[in-house]
Amino acid sequence: MNSITEQLTFSVTLSTKAHALAQEYSQGIANPEKHQQIYLNTLAVYAVDHYLQCMKFETDWLSSDSRDRLTIQLMNVADLEVKNLGKLECRPVLPKAEVCEIPPEVWSDRIGYVAVQFNSDLKEATILGFTTQAKAEVPLNQLQSLEDFLLYLSELEIAESPQHEDSSSLVKIGQWLDGFVDAGWQTIDHLLNPQQLGLAFKSAVSITRGQKIDLGMQLESLSVALVVKIAAASEEEVDILTQVYPVENHILPEGMKLNIHDESGENVLEVISREEDNWIQLEFSAELGEKFQIIVTHGDSQETRVFEV
Amino acid sequence: MANDFQDRDDALNQELQQLINEAKRYPSESQNPTDRAKRRIALNKLINAIRGSGKLSKQAQWMESPNYEDYYHEALQITFGEICQKIEQYKPKYPVMAWVNVIFSRRIYDVAKKDQRRGITQLYKQQKVPLVLALDEIYKDLPIENEIYSEEQQLKEIIKNDPEKILENDYIQNYPQANLKAILLLVLEGKRWKDISEELGVPISTASSFYQRRMQKTVTYLKKYI
User: Which residue has the higher pLDDT, A111 or B147?
Assistant: First the structure.
């Protein structure tokens, strides 16, 4: 029986199923070191995958690099995609080793590194702890505990969930028509030049507001205006028009994306700018109380705004 | 003696029930990350305690099956996952281990039936090596030279030929010898970054980050020729 003071670990039995997978992926690799590397990497990810599933995190091993037959030959990689949170690297640790090695090719694009130690007959893997620091070697006694690991992932999980954005930055667009406009949304004549203003049509029973959005950082940064127009369609329904305009420029860069997601996060509408587009737009209607997200994407940068009618 | 066993069972059951109560105290949908983590830590401890209890059923009715060990471990793994997901369904009037073993028996039945439908022998006939390899046995699984044209050899040849000369012409600034082709071939030989950096005369971090940034492009390129 484990005493309470003992360090928290999690053990996974490496059954035939786990080994069959390791054999499938290391098959055909004649270099003994590379062969063992792929074999153990596969077992390590298998163990962490099972652990995370028990802990109710959603994983997507199949779309991770560690399941790509070519990539695993070219990189010492044992990554596991955790849905919405990012990639965890699952590093195998040999039975008597005292450090966890992290190869340089996986030093970026990881939310953390999990140490997985094997016993010598490879019948059991034990998850020891983790680190967020990418460096060549981490002594096992300096790993952060699994308690910290579960807290860290739980924090990421809540920070990335749509409900969380709701509470912090929900825009109550339904109230706009009553004259209560959320802070941070300007009248569009403050935002667009007169030429652009001619394009956004006006109507007596609607209200139009906009916000400047900065995409990307430093050198590649790009500013656009997100304009939202809301008009009452009936007692229960409103028509919403969303547009993206360039700021300090007349045309949008090609490949700029505007998406509408519904409450569950599902993509319901999408438009992508073509060469020389002056603006892009999407029109839809929503019922009172409905929530939706407007997402503006350019390259790797993305901004999301959450609304409630 | 009998009392002694009874006491130990009671102590175990109490400990397990405490862990279950601890997990239940924190709803899985709580918006507080500390609560979610506490629930998960309690479940982690619960699984460890069940594993170490010595009270898991041996599932004796399957012992005669040649695949008994596989069934046992696979079913146990599914059982652990299920316990974590269904912890709210546990009723304190039953001992925890009785509840666990009921789930376990059902899962081993499912696993065995599924396997028997598939035909037990099918998987095993094709295997030329023992299924669960120990650390010093992994080498036994190596492809025998000349027996098959290994994936690795095939890949090496594509890189050497570099049909579009993309790999050869992409090199670390000021170090033409440290081109993508040279690095790829060293990686395939199983060289470590320390050796690669020495051989090419560039710092480890420069070489490895150059390599990593080009990974996606390289994979897309090579896949065209595999």
Answer: A111
Residues B179, B217 share a domain? yes
Q: Do B84 and A29 touch (CB under 8 A)?
A: no
Kindly indicate whether the ipTM for this predicted assembly is greater than 0.85, answering yes or no: yes
Chain B residue numbers touching A104 (CB-CB < 8 A): 193, 204-205, 208-209, 212
Q: Domain range holding B36?
A: 2-119
Read off the tokens for B123. 């998987």
The total number of structural domains that make up chain B = 2
CB contacts under 8 A, B 143-202 vs A, are: 143, 145, 148, 150-153, 155, 184, 187-190, 193
Domain termination site, one of B59, B94, B119: B119
CB neighbour burial string for A216-240, b if at least 16 within 10 angstroms, e if fewer? eeeeeebebbbbbbbbeeeeeebbb
Q: How distant, in Å, are the alpha carbons of A94, A102, A167, B205, B206 from that of A136?
A: 16, 5, 40, 11, 14
User: Pick from B28, B43, B76: which is nearest to A13 by CB?
Assistant: B76
Identify which of B138, B208, B212 has the shortest CB distance to residue A35. B138
Instruction: Assess whether B84 and B105 both reside in one domain.
Output: yes
Q: B119, B134, B158: which is the final residue of a domain?
A: B119
Collapsing DSSP to helix, strand or coil, A37 comes out as helix
State the pTM of this model.
0.71
- Give the model confidence (pLDDT) of A268-287 as tens digits: 899 999 988 888 999 998 88
Does one domain contain both B101 and B168? Answer: no
Q: Are residues B93 and B31 in the same domain?
A: yes
Is B135's CB within 8 Å of A94's CB?
yes
Contact assignment for A164 to B31 by CB distance below 8 Å: yes
* Residues 6 or more apart whose Cβ sits within 8 Å of residue A258: A242, A244, A270, A271, A272, A280, A281, A282, A294, A295, A296, A297
